[in-house]
Amino acid sequence: MFVWIHGGYWQGSSINEALLEADALASQGFGFAAIEYTLAPEVSIAEMIGECESALAWIRLRNPGKSVFLGGHSAGAHLALAVAAQSQVEGLVLVSGVFDLRPISATTINEPLGLDEAGAYELSPIFADFRFPCLTEVLVGGEESPSFQMQGRAAFDYLTKNGAAVELHSLSSLDHFDIILNGEHLKSFRRLADR
């Protein structure tokens, strides 16, 4: 079972972003679910994480005995890693994620999020003390901004230190959106399922 969390800087986009994943994976016989979450400023990032944890628990309950692979893009990758710290998953696919929220707290992106320095640190999954015994792939586009590339490297380093069997894929000709449209994350899901 593949579970996807959409991006949108925690304040935009929707479950409809997952139509590409749903069609591609279902056509290959894989189970698929996408998690919708309430956006900022209506709720905090902590509440979004809680919503995603509840949704994943619901999906697991209705799919007993199935391996669950969790993934997300951008803000969805942040939520996926935060959820994986609290929930057992067999694999993670983290695409162009933001895992250290501290740099965001000083930007206009933060206006609807309302993060202060302490909250940004607390909600950054790369500072949590958890073990990740699952298979993980971190993907980042080579045409993404240096900050997204640093975020991908930071996630890779954190996961390696905390027990994940992790691979970092820097995809040279892809940017933040091409990486999804190109379907590289779907290849990651398939690789994890085949292991």
UniProtKB/TrEMBL annotation:
This is Alpha/beta hydrolase fold protein. Keywords: Hydrolase. GO terms for molecular function: hydrolase activity. Residues 3-107 form the Alpha/beta hydrolase fold-3 domain. SUPFAM superfamilies: alpha/beta-Hydrolases. InterPro entries: AB_hydrolase_3, AB_hydrolase_fold, GDXG_lipolytic_enzyme. Gene3D superfamilies: alpha/beta hydrolase.
